[in-house]
Structures are given as structure tokens and as C-alpha cells.
Amino acid sequence: MEKLLTELSGGVSRRDFIKASAVAAVAAVALPGKVFAAAPDKIKVGLIGCGGRGNDALSNCLAAASKLGLQMEVVAVGDWFKDRADNAGKRRGVPAERCFAGPDAYKKVLATDINLALLVTSPNFRPLHFEAAIAAGKNVFMEKPVAVDPPGARRIIAAGEVAKTKGLAVVAGTQRRHQTGYRRNQYAVEKGAIGKIVCGNVWWCGGALWKTDRKPGESDADYMVRNWVSFTEMSGDHVVEQHVHNLDVANWFIGHPPVWALGFGGRARRKTGDQFDFFSVELNYDDECYVHSMCRQVNGTYSRVSEHFIGTEGSTWGEGAMKSSKVIDIPQFFEHGGPYVQEHIDLLQSIIDGKPLNEARNVAEATMTGIMCRIASYTGQLVKWTDLMENKGSPWFNLALSPCPEDFEKGPVTAPKDDVVAVPGRD
To answer: What is the Cα–Cα distance from 58 to 47, expressed in whole angstroms?
Structure first.
């Protein structure tokens, strides 16, 4: 990690990215360890990942800038597939020469004069792209989750620390942290409204996501990128890719990540990729605090996406009713345009205020919690947090999924076989 911090810190000064129009001409102000220059006339944004969520994230960012009265220009876009990059660029008025495609498209976007990068590719690429964005001195919005394996999650934490030294803002797509109902309840819990949390449940139970059949002559790389929600190597499995939201709420409300995980899962419905259909995991948060995690992607089954916690003096839903005999004075939390827009408002406002948000560790820990659940379920073993974060002798500390993001730039990759999954235990 120390080596990575040294490589990323690379001497790039941070520009004070934006100010309200009334103070746009303020002179540069030097602060210890950082340099804040006069604000540019507009936000110059680059989109890396032009799928559905990527285009939505860009729309959310543009809406946030509008609500703050800020000018924004979409300078460059990049995607694995040329048609997606071209379509996104055309939609936003980006010249064809700045619509980049291929495995190195992110490098070309970051080489432009953008000052905000939106990282919205499949999760496996996030550590590589985040490191590159921070090294290039860009503020970052990145979608969740931010890794698919323990080394990747630790890379995010390391790069996030470098972002702090550069004064760069980092906001993640765990939008519940920007949602009024969740913020009110978390504040009340933090102030003791339900006492100490002793147990809880978190759920993401819904239907299956899309799948794409393999096209004639399609390369393994193209097939995996196009069908990324089916491959653990690309998404982390749905306990990481979707359930990260609920796991993040548990970490947030309790105040720290879990100590260990023990669980199971299985597969019966899927035809493509190598992921499970469901997971059921017990998470121990120490001090006699246990949370049951349940997630499922099976059509025609009961749906629930929420969180519930019981404390020594009450109980609460993540967003919703709270039972408490205490009166807590809760400040007003604003939400404009919904949480997906509010997270971008908070990102931009933090830069305006000269107090850049940095959510890298929070989202990395939530991602790692999902990874811990997956490893426990795939192997049938009890997996400790220290196995993933500290214990280099653990078989899971350096458990890196393959192909890794760098492999996609080196040449052809080999996709895992469809419908071949982890089987815990032995006969």
C-alpha cells in the first residue's frame, strides 16, 4: 500500500474546481499541503462508462450543476464499445474525436482537460480507473461497488488517501448516504435514539437482471463486458453489486464494518455466467451485535429491499418508522431532485466550500463487506475482516479474480465457463 501511495501522489496540484459565480474571480489562496487556485469558468466533466447507469449518472450530474447555478461542459466520453461512446457523445454534443472506445478509453478521457471524472464502468475496472483518475488530479464520482476482490478494495482505500492529500473530492454511488430519510434515522441512531444496536436484518431480494446471449464470433472480452452482471469476475456477484447498498447502511448505522461472516448460497435458475442466485449470511459486528444479510435474484419471488435494526432502547428501519422513547433534535437534511441528484449536489457543493468530501473508504468497506459475504458463501468457511484487510497469511488476503482489469488492456482474455459455480465443502 505504501508503494501505491507513493506512485499515485505524483505532484499534481489541485485546482479549486468551482466557486459560486459571485466569487469566481477570487484570488488563489495557499493552504498547508495544498494549493487552491482561482476557479475555472465551468465544470469540465468526462464520462467513463456509457451504459445505462453511466448516462443516468451524467444526467444526474448535469441536473446537480443546474440546481447549483453552475456551468458544466461534457468534454469527453469513453466506453469499451464504440457505439456506446459515440451515442453518448452525440447526445451530449461531444465532438467525435473526444468519443473514445476500447480498453484504454479511460486513459484518453483522463488525458483531456476535465476536472471531474465519472467512473461508471463495470465494478472490476473501478480500482484501476480510480487510481488513474486520482493520479491525473481529477475529482471523482464513482458508482458502487468499487471492486470485486480484496486487493481491489484495498486499492480503492489507498487511492482515496492520496485523494485527501491532493484535496480532491470523491463521492460514491451509495446514494442512501445522501437520502433524507436515511440521514435522519442514522443521525438519530448515532445520538442514541434506539440505544446500542444488537441485531438487524438487511435485504435485497428481487428479480433477475438482464442476460445477453453470446454473439457469433464475439470475443471473450466483449462477451464479459456486455454481460458483466452475470460474471463474478466483473460484478463481484450480486451480494456485492446490488446488496452493497444495504450492507453499507448496516456499516453506517452500526458505525463500523463487521468482524466476521458465515453464510451459504446457491444457484438454480441462471444460465449465463458463474454467479449464485441467492445468499444468506450471518454478520457479526462484535459486542454481541449480529445482522442477517439476505439477497436474491430470482424472478417470481417475494421482493424486499430494506434494512431493520433493533437496539437496546428501540428499533428503526433504515428509512422509515423508528420506535424510540427518546426525543432527538434532528437537523434538517435537504434532498433536491432525489438521492441520485443529491449525491452530485453534495459532491459539487463540497468543492465549492473548499471541504471536499471523500467517500472512498466508506464505499470500499461496504464493497469489502459484500466480498466477505461472497467468499464465506462460496467456500463455506467463516471469513474474518482481518483476513481481508490485515492478515497477509490468510488464503483470502490476496485472492484476486481473473481476468483482472489490467488483463483486458494486455490482449485477449479467457472468460470463465458459463454455469460452472463454486461448490463449498467436499463429498
So the answer is: 7
- Angle (CA) 274-51-49 rounded to 5° is 95
Q: Hey, what's the cell of 169?
A: 473530492
Question: What's the grid cell of residue 422?
Answer: 463454486
Please tell me the distance from the alpha carbon of residue 223 to that of residue 238, in angstroms, as a whole number: 18
Query: pTM score, two decimals?
Result: 0.91
Q: How far is CA 406 from CA 118, 223, 403, 410, in A?
A: 20, 17, 8, 7
Per-residue pLDDT at 167 = 96
Contact between 308 and 201 (Cβ < 8 Å): yes
Q: C-alpha angle 243/141/376, rounded to 5°?
A: 25
**23 CB-near residues (< 8 Å, 6+ apart):** 39
For residue 350, which phi and psi values (nearest 5 degrees)? Answer: -65, -30
> pLDDT value at position 15?
37
Tens of pLDDT, residues 69-93: 999 999 999 999 999 999 999 999 9
The region that residue 358 occupies, defined by phi over 0 for left and psi between -120 and 50 for alpha, beta otherwise, is beta
CB-based contact 249:176 (threshold 8 Å)? yes
- Write the pLDDT tens digit of every residue in 401-410: 999 999 999 9
Could you tell me if 411 and 298 are in contact, meaning their C-beta atoms sit under 8 angstroms apart? no
Q: 99-101 and 322-324 as β-strands: parallel, antiparallel, unpaired?
A: unpaired
34: three-class secondary structure by DSSP:
strand
Q: Is 373 left (phi over 0), alpha (psi -120 to 50) or beta?
A: alpha
Residue 74: what pLDDT? 98
Beta bridge partners, 323, equal 315
